[in-house]
Amino acid sequence: MTPFGILYTLHVLSALVWVGGMFFAWMVLRPAAMKALEGPARLKLWVEVFQGFFRWVWIAVVLLPVSGVGMIHLQYSGFEAAPRYVQVMMGLYVVMTALFIRIQALLLPELRTAVAAQDWPTGAATLGKIRKLVGINLIVGLVLVAIAAARP
C-alpha cells in the first residue's frame, strides 16, 4: 500500500468511527433507550456511552488532521494548491471538533455530576443540551462526508 493509501484509509476509518458513531447514537440507541429505560437508568447509560465513545472520537480528532494534512502534501504539494472542497472540509472539521470539545469539556462533566448526585432534572436538561449539539455535529459530519464523496 502506498503512503497516500495508508493515510486515506486512516482518514476514512476515522471519519466513519466519528460520524457513524453519532448516527448510531442518534438514530438507533437514543430511541431504544427512550423506550426501554426510565430516566435515571437512561442518564446512567449515556454517561457510560459517552465515556466509551469519546475515547474513539479523540483518536479520530487526532488522526483526521494528521492524515488529511499528509494527503494534502502528497497529492497537492501544500495547502495553497488544494482544491476548495478540501478547504471546506478542513473548516467543517474545526466546527465539529469545537462542538465535540464543548460537549466533552463542559457538558459531560455536568452530566456526570448530576447523575452522581442523583439530580435527575439537571441530568435530563444537560443530556438534552448534549443531544442537540450531537445532532448539529451529526448534520455537519454528514455534510462533510457528502462533500468528500462528491469530490471531483
Automatic annotation (TrEMBL):
<feature type="domain" description="Copper resistance protein D">
    <location>
        <begin position="48"/>
        <end position="150"/>
    </location>
</feature>
<dbReference type="Pfam" id="PF05425">
    <property type="entry name" value="CopD"/>
</dbReference>
<feature type="transmembrane region" description="Helical">
    <location>
        <begin position="130"/>
        <end position="150"/>
    </location>
</feature>
<feature type="transmembrane region" description="Helical">
    <location>
        <begin position="88"/>
        <end position="109"/>
    </location>
</feature>
<keyword id="KW-1133">Transmembrane helix</keyword>
<feature type="transmembrane region" description="Helical">
    <location>
        <begin position="53"/>
        <end position="76"/>
    </location>
</feature>
<dbReference type="InterPro" id="IPR008457">
    <property type="entry name" value="Cu-R_CopD_dom"/>
</dbReference>
<protein>
    <submittedName>
        <fullName>DUF2269 family protein</fullName>
    </submittedName>
</protein>
<feature type="transmembrane region" description="Helical">
    <location>
        <begin position="6"/>
        <end position="32"/>
    </location>
</feature>
<dbReference type="GO" id="GO:0016020">
    <property type="term" value="C:membrane"/>
</dbReference>
<keyword id="KW-0812">Transmembrane</keyword>
<keyword id="KW-0472">Membrane</keyword>
